[in-house]
Design a protein that fits this description.
This protein is of the alpha/beta class and 189 residues long. The chain contains 7 helices and 10 strands. Helices cover 29% and strands 23% of the residues. A hairpin with a 5-residue loop joins strand 2 and strand 3. The relative contact order is 0.15. Keywords: Signal.
């Protein structure tokens, strides 16, 4: 076991309990709830391991989406957070090396003229995505011509595509693998 200095412990858990911001919207990293109603999955497990190595207790601080986790940095309600690293967030949050990489990509409906990823950034294209996600922040930084439509949830972003209000759906690849079942004839990536 790695020995942790009191200085590091006080820096990472100033209250004596490690408070970990958890993004409940990432279904790959938060897979359910315990009988006590606490989030379960990779993110809570990583937070528990950090607390264990620090020799502190743990308090999970759940948020409905990554935007709310990131925005709460100024409130001082969490000591560590398990969200995607993005340059926009680095202005206020110091990120560690990635503990997981989750690919994101696009889904287009049947009959779409878009056949390659490099065609998506076009002035006539409307991209739907969930606001505040790492891939949404990536789109903000990298998409120069297409319109980006932000939704409050992954389901709402899918609804924009289904209702014809968006031409492309951007999301985590794993989520799109289930979304494709709701969009007959859709193409992924």
């Amino acid at each position: 076991m790695v020995m942790v200095s009191d200085e590091l412990r006080k820096e990472l858990a100033p209250t004596g309990v490690l408070r970990a911001g958890i993004n409940l919207a990432n279904f790959l990293l938060v897979t359910g709830k315990s009988a006590a109603g606490e989030p379960e999955g990779i993110s809570p497990d990583v937070a528990a391991e950090v607390a264990k190595r620090l020799g502190t207790g743990l308090r999970l601080v759940p948020f409905p989406n990554p935007k709310d986790v990131g925005d709460a940095v100024d409130e001082g309600c969490w000591d560590i957070a398990l969200i995607g690293a993005e340059p926009q967030r680095e202005e206020k949050i110091a990120f560690s090396k990635a503990y997981v990489e989750i690919p994101a990509t696009y889904l287009v409906p049947k009959g779409s003229q878009l056949t390659r990823i490099d065609e998506v950034d076009s002035a006539t294209v409307r991209i739907a995505c969930m606001a505040g996600t790492a891939f949404g922040l990536w789109l903000d930084k990298n998409i120069k011509h297409a319109s980006i439509m932000k939704a409050d949830s992954m389901d709402a972003a899918l609804r924009l595509l289904l209702d014809g209000k968006a031409d492309v759906l951007a999301n985590l690849r794993e989520r799109l693998l289930s979304d494709v079942l709701q969009v007959p004839g859709a193409q992924l990536d």
